[in-house]
Amino acid sequence: MSAVLEFAAAVSTEHVAGQAAPQDTVASLTRITKRYANGVLALDDLSLSLRRGEIVALLGPNGAGKSTAVKLMMGLSTPTSGSVRIFGGDPREADTRLRTGVMLQVGRAPDMLRVREHINIFRGYYPSPMAYAEIVRAAGLEGVEGRLFGELSGGQKQRVLFALALAGDPDLIFLDEPTAGLDIEARRGMWAQIRSLAERGKTVLLTTHYLEEADTLAHRIVVINKGRVVCEGTPAEVKSLGAASSGNSPSRSLKIIRCSTSLPAGTLLAIPGVTGAEVTGALTAITTTQAEATLRELLALDQNLHSLEVQSPALEDAFLALTAE
Amino acid sequence: MSTASIAIPTAQPSAFLRNVTIFLTEARYEFVRLLRTRAFSLSVVGFPVAFYIFFGLVMNRGEMIHGVSVAKYMLGTYAVFGMVGAALFGIGVALSGELSAGWLELKRASPMPPLAYLLAKCSSAMAFGVIIVCLLTLLGITAGHVSLTAMQFAHLIGLTMAGVFPFACMGMALALLVPFNSAPGFANMLYLPMSFCGGLWVPIMMLPHVMQKLALVLPTYHLSQLTLGALGYASAGTTASHWSGLLGFTLVMLGIASLAFRKFEQNS
Fold first, then answer.
1. CATH architecture group of domain A22-241
2. What ipTM was predicted for this assembly?
3. Given CA atoms A108, A112, A115, A120 in this order, what sign does their dihedral have?
4. Which sequence spans correspond to the domains of chain B?
């Protein structure tokens, strides 16, 4: 009897871990293909889902399809094929939009309106907006509320746009490069705000060029390139590529070996486990999936090898490796 | 079932009221924004006022056209000139800027009803049109011995407000078709020839015969014939022909704008 119960419990937890229960999925892109009128294929059979209370970072080089994916979720664009569901509904419906907030890269906002006016215009769009004082505090806009938007510094403008995303106290927030142009202190302040949103059960999807940001902030990182998901997982999983890209195969951990060696790149690439070799100045950086085997071979081949260093890849290295040609 | 049928009628008025409130807020701040943008507010109000003072009050002092004083005739045409400027620059060029900067995208992603946004832009242009007409009328009465009844004035204001729509549609088409950097230039290239050929600067019957024929396709011609009619000047065509001219122009512009918007959406 108890064994049966245990079995059932095990199955159900496995189910939860494997895929989120449907009510926990707040947004999903399912098998999306998006081809623009000019023939450019922006998304190629891409699927993505966001769960309640998580911060997901969308990473990818320019032109990877990040902003197309975000635009589809905001209902600004329609897919060529596939389906977009936000809170179980169509993103273009007014009721869906009442539950989402967006921060976009905006070149110019109306300069001749004051910060206070901008916030109140956006609060007016929602039946139960976030309290004005709360928005100002969360976005760190105390003291500049009376200024015209055009008089603000780049970082302050960015914080006003963040405030507009929060105006409706939304359950799902899209942030397109939220900390671009912010100094490190302001950036940390915004990170704290984004974290506290997730703690309150809000879902955040952010795109960023700052890998450090994705690393410290995101629960889950989705790397996309050429319209496809290259890999998906926690920051730790993305860093050790194999674990994330092929779920059930034993985890291959990627390491970077830096050393000064006279061996040519061709020889290095022939060593077991080596996936890449790059010479920068006096040092050679070798990426390998079998650090120990590679090192044994390397030391045997080059007696004069020196300045040896073995590192775990930073997210940046993983990102570059994943999105390389 | 019964709860749903009760919920719908109660939900609708509140949603409608909220949309009206959103529209009023948008309209108020759009007007404030334009007023604070000195480059816009000073030139849009300043040009028709300066032109009217110069051509209507100073240069043609005491002259008559077909039994109507030049000062009163020009009040009718410069009212149109002023409103068209407010509509083309306040709606067309402003929309083009917001489109190119990505601001419109942020607005579209928000729950703001798109109609509230467009109508707010139209009502700001109307407000500027009304300000211009009031200033011109005041100048005409005080400095040009223009006499007009309260009904004539109300008629002129009414036409100025209704006349915003054809030019708002033209502005929308312009914003969707022309890149932001060249939008003000294009707006002027439409505004100035359309004003001259429509008989806003020089009375239409003083223009060559060919141009009088050409004017039949211009909304500035039809609207100015209506404002002149309101001031007691015998119009060249029937009132109905001028209204249908304006309606036709509006529909053509709306068609162009919606085609351009569809193309814009496909590429976004």
1. 3-Layer(aba) Sandwich (3.40)
2. 0.87
3. negative
4. 2-266
